[in-house]
Structures are given as structure tokens and as C-alpha cells.
Amino acid sequence: MTMAEETTANQAVTYPEEGSREMIEAGVFYGRKKSKTNPKMKPYVLANRAGMEIVNLAKTAEGLERAVAFLKEKVQNGGLILFVGMQAAAEDATTALAKKFTMPYATNRWAGGTITNFKIVSKRIEYMKKLRTDLASGALDKYTKKERLMLEKELARLTIIFGGLEHLTKEPDVLVVVDPNLHSTAVREANRLKIPVIAFANVDSDPDTVDFLVPGNDNARRSVQWFLKKIETAMDEAMASKAAAAQKTAEAAALKAAQEKEAKASAKS
After folding, report:
1. Distance from C-alpha of 122 to C-alpha of 120, rounded to nearest angstrom
2. pLDDT at position 12, please?
3. Which of 132, 136, 140, 133 is nearest to 158 (CA)?
4. Which 3 state secondary structure label does DSSP give 37?
């Protein structure tokens, strides 16, 4: 029996029925070698098979439910979400997700002080945006060829460092991270500023650094895509609720205005 088959066999007694097969097929249950497991993550481990820890998917489902509920609340209230996922398995999906909702993201590198030294970093981001605009509009044509080349190189350098952070207009309200170990600097900065962290994290992570932990395989493309798809769905639902609430408010305001107008007309007559 393979690891996946054995995990499926345990599904009825261990995992919640809804979504469990989806997690298994995505390989979310694959942990790390026992020697690499953080002792604090033991509550999220179901068993050990051939030296490999198996993530308890019931815990994954519980963590995801908490994370999604919190994220929806923040998005409905206009919160700014910063996505971080620099490993190959997460880079493309993280970028696509952030761009869909016009949110900032870091998928190339994390510049130290991105959020703890935001006032300084924001100036560099604005400078990068200005250089990009000037290059596209032809405003750099007034410079000599050598000067223009230097500015283009500077833009390329800034894009490597800050590309994706154009929409980081303030300190983020939430940090969404795939693999907090790999992005420990980002997580530390968020912890320092008490910015809530939602993390998809394997069993070698430190759960104490994360506010909303979703345990799972954070190193495989399918598993990471499963997690980010859940985040995307949650944000879609939050945006729809926000739009519906705004429409309801607008309709109520229009009705009130019409009633007041009618009342004034009646008073005059």
C-alpha cells in the first residue's frame, strides 16, 4: 500500500469528509522527515510512514477554516493583504493571485525593512514607479545616452528588489505566506509590528510565529496551488459580500433621499 493509499484508508476515521480527498490528491499530507520536524508541530502530525511525517488533514481543514474566516473579515473591511511566496512552487500562483485582487506581493526577494521601515521603502517604491512611468512616456529622452542607460539599470535593479510592491501603499493588514521558514525575515517583521500572519506551513516550521497556521506540504506545486486557490475563493466571496453591502447601502441612501424629496414636496403642497 502506498502512502497516499494508506492515508486515504484512514480518511473515514481521521479526516473530515468534505475536501479530504482533494487535499490527498494535491499531496497536502506530505510532511518532512522526522528529524526535521519542529517538536511544536507534533499536534499537527498524524503518523510517521517510512521516516516521513504525515500531516493530519483534519488539522489542516481546521486551520484553513480559521484563516479563511479571518481573511474574509479583513478583505470586506478594505484590508491590504501582502502575499509572500518566493519558491518555485509558489511564485507564479502567488503573483497571479495578488494581481487579480490588486494586492502587493513579494515573489523575487524580500528587502529587509519592507514593512518595519516602510516610510523609507515606500520612497524607493515611488521612485521605481516614477522611473517606469518616465521611461514609458519618453520623459527620459532628455538625458544623454549614458545617463539614460544608468537610469534604466537602476530601474531594473529596483524592479528586482521591489517589483510587486507597487500596491503596498501602507503597512499591510495581513501577511499571507507560503513556507514561513523560507520567509522568516518577512514573518519576523510582521511579528514585530503585530501584523497577523496566515501561513501554509510544513511540520518543520515554528507555529509560534504564525497567527493562522494551515499545516501542509509547502514545497510542492500542487499542494501550494490548493492552498492559494482556497485563499482566492475566500477573497472572491469577501469581495462579492463587500460589493453587495455597498450596493445595499447605496440603495438605502437613494430611497431615503427620494422619501425626503417626496416629504418636502408634500409639505409645500
Report:
1. 5
2. 40
3. 132
4. coil
pLDDT at 6: 44
Q: Which residues lie below 8 Å from residue 241, measured CB to CB, with a gap of 6+? A: 72, 76
Residue 73 has pLDDT above 70, yes or no: yes
> 221-268 and 88-100 are packed helices; what angle lies between their axes, rounded to 10 degrees?
10
Residue 193 DSSP one-character state? T
Q: Say which residues have a Cβ less than 8 Å from residue 117's Cβ, sequence separation at least 6.
A: none
What is the set of domains in the chain, with CATH numbers?
A: 3-115+171-241 (3.40.50.10490), 123-161 (no CATH)
| 245 pLDDT more than 90 | no
**Residue 200 cell numbers, joined:** 501554509
Tell me the CB-side half-sphere exposure of residue 246, using CA atoms within 13 A.
Answer: 9
pLDDT digits (tens, 9 = 90+) for 127-161: 999 999 999 999 888 999 999 999 999 999 999 99
135: left (phi over 0), alpha (psi -120 to 50) or beta: alpha
Residues 53, 181, 49: CA angle, nearest 5 degrees: 5
Residue given cell 485563499 in the structure block: 231
pLDDT in tens, 218-231: 999 999 999 999 99
The per-residue pLDDT for range 51-70, each reduced to its tens digit, is: 899 999 999 999 999 999 99
Owner of C-alpha cell 509560534: 208
